[in-house]
Amino acid sequence: MEIRFKQKSKIIDISIVLVAGIASVSMMIYAVFHFGLKNAWNELVLNMFYVSCLVMTAMYFFKVGITTNQFNYWCSLCVGITVLLRDILFPPPLINYPLHLACMTLSVMLVLMLIFFYSRKDWITYSKRNLWMICIVDMVLATLYNIDIILEPTDEYTAFLLTEIWIRPTITYGLVACFVKDNDEPEPQVQRTELIRTSQSWDGVELPDYLQGRPEVVAIKYEIPAGKKLDWHHHPVMNHGILVQGELTIISKEGKEKVVHEGEAVVEMVNTIHHGENRGLKPVVLYMFYLSQQGMPLSVLHSKISLD
Known about the structure:
This protein has 7 helices and 9 strands. The chain has helices spanning 8-35, 37-61, 68-89, 97-119, 128-151, 156-164, 167-184, and strands at residues 215-224, 233-234, 238-245, 248-252, 257-260, 265-267, 274-277, 284-293, 300-301. α1 (8-35) packs antiparallel against α2. The two termini are 50 Å apart.
């Protein structure tokens, strides 16, 4: 299975995110069974969004049916929902009022940041700075929660919260880990490759002048089975083509030969009898482009001439 990132540091980053996230979610499952659904139901709901983010991170890393824009949007949306649920609508009880006020302020700031990024027309082009802002604010928020939890009398559920509360900062770090590499890469540019430029056909003969009259441009795709020989023919109009599969041998009546390989362009002879042969083991796929004139045939067959 192909992976998106090749650098060792990026693979380590994503591995840390996945391992930490899986460990945290496992702690949540343990809490549901150990403390009961009545106490841990809210963590179970939150972890449904966390699991979705982890699955999407794995899909993105292994290039399985998710684009950069889709990953960016849906993971960030899940983060925003968890901020709204946990930190604003159902915040954990904090004994220290200043810490409680600071956490609520940071939570509102985090939601506003996400809304601001979504509201922009270019929300799909997050920058490295945008992502680090989200991640850092979320990590500071988790740190404040931990400080308050440590100030409380330590019990088994407190120990659970110390681990579980870091799931979302792990997810936000995963956003950074995935996108820093993508944003640092230069944008792919259009590649231009000139396949052929000539005023002669493949046998070295000068091409005729352009036809006078109403022009007609024709493009035809030819598929020639392996071992097939085409009839003798000539073209009264100029034409050229690109061979996209296989290997085609062109033979003139005078005995000249031209082998066209896969990916090559060829300019055909005009008013010279010739034919083509597929001497290879797989079908030939050839695209030909004719500079013709309305009412004029693209080729004229000479079927009376033997192919032997």
